[in-house]
Design goal:
Rossmann fold, disordered N terminus, Glucose Oxidase, domain 1
Length: 332
């Protein structure tokens, strides 16, 4: 099993992180020549989506591509002023996000992650809760907004899933297929397979039922002692990250354990930790940490910054049995 899982885990080691937007200039020049990709784009255009940029901006080539592709993306979402690594100033990004919240659009989709989303939350927390529930989508740095919205605006549907900037022919089916089925109301449940147990508790416990929460490990640690601090009691916690070395991953997980964020959880699932120098070492550190916990711990390559990013819906009920997790889809 160790060798088998190590091979599986190595699938998460991409040829550079997808958030390396240096490569983006060439990435979108020929991204509309497959039927699968064209179908994904057609389905997105048929949905009531507005795209926002609460974090970093995007490369010029991608912005030009989006403008020509008839997606509903405001010009304010394509600004890249690179203000402290973010697409625009905090005030402007906040106002653009609030505009989306107050708009008639039912789905708000983060253009990318990157840096800076958490700086909006203190101001959002002072505002009245929105009267109309919507769906919000994003991951990576967007984890901060995912946690805030899923915990403070519980009538919203929040989905940890690919950001809009990952829309290309290579990843469209693996990262967008199930997500669009959820958004289109086509499925009531779906499965995440390839869960591999990392400790004895996961091997022996038959059925685990709980609601989902989690996201990017670095951002989760940043949430501690804030108004959007992650709440894990009774939850199945999912975690991923990118470009964090094994010792840092272990250290951060141990911190979460020390402050009590794992003692009341139903289970812990690690996704991809790609963009690191030694994937086998990551696996060893994850297995070593899992042995220190008295809850089931699993790992999979099915979500995160890797080749797959199966959606995970905050507060949705999930059931783990064997090597599979079934997620019930709450309809908005």
């Amino acid at each position: 099993m160790m060798v088998k899982y190590a091979a599986l885990f190595l699938l998460c080691l991409c040829s550079g992180c997808s958030e390396n937007y240096v490569k983006e200039e060439n990435r979108y020049k020929k991204c509309d020549d497959t039927k699968d990709f064209q179908e994904i784009c057609r389905r997105i255009r048929g949905m009531d989506v507005v795209v926002v940029s609460p974090g970093s901006g995007v490369a010029t080539q991608f912005a030009s591509y989006l403008k020509k592709s008839n997606f509903n993306i405001p010009d304010t979402s394509l600004i890249n002023h690179d203000v402290f690594g973010s697409s625009d100033t905090d005030d402007h990004r906040l106002n653009h996000f609030i505009d989306a919240v107050n708009s008639d659009h039912k789905i708000i989709w983060a253009l990318r992650g990157g840096f800076g989303a958490a700086r909006l939350i203190a101001s959002l927390d002072r505002l009245p809760k929105p009267c109309v529930a919507k769906t919000f989508i994003g991951f990576s740095d967007i984890t901060s907004l995912n946690l805030f919205i899923s915990q403070k605006w519980p009538n919203w549907r929040v989905i940890h899933a690919t950001v809009f900037a990952y829309l290309d022919k290579k990843s469209s089916k693996n990262k967008f297929g199930t997500l669009l089925d959820i958004l289109g109301g086509k499925i009531d449940s779906y499965d995440i397979n390839n869960l591999h147990h990392l400790n004895e508790k996961a091997k022996t416990q038959k059925d685990i039922i709980g609601k989902l929460t989690g996201g990017n490990l670095t951002i989760i640690e940043n949430s501690l002692k804030t108004c959007w601090e992650i709440q894990t009691d009774g939850k199945i916690v999912f975690i991923e990250d990118v470009r964090e070395e094994p010792q840092c991953i272990y250290r951060t997980m141990y911190h979460l354990k020390e402050v009590g964020k794992l003692s009341g959880a139903k289970a812990l699932i690690f996704g991809c930790f790609n963009g690191v120098s030694d994937q086998k070492k990551v696996l060893l550190y994850l297995k070593g940490f899992a042995k220190t916990l008295d809850i089931p711990v699993y790992a999979t390559n099915q979500f995160g910054h890797g080749d797959y990013n199966v959606p995970l819906i905050y507060n949705a009920t999930a059931k783990i049995r064997g090597g599979k997790m079934t997620i019930s889809v709450p309809h908005s």
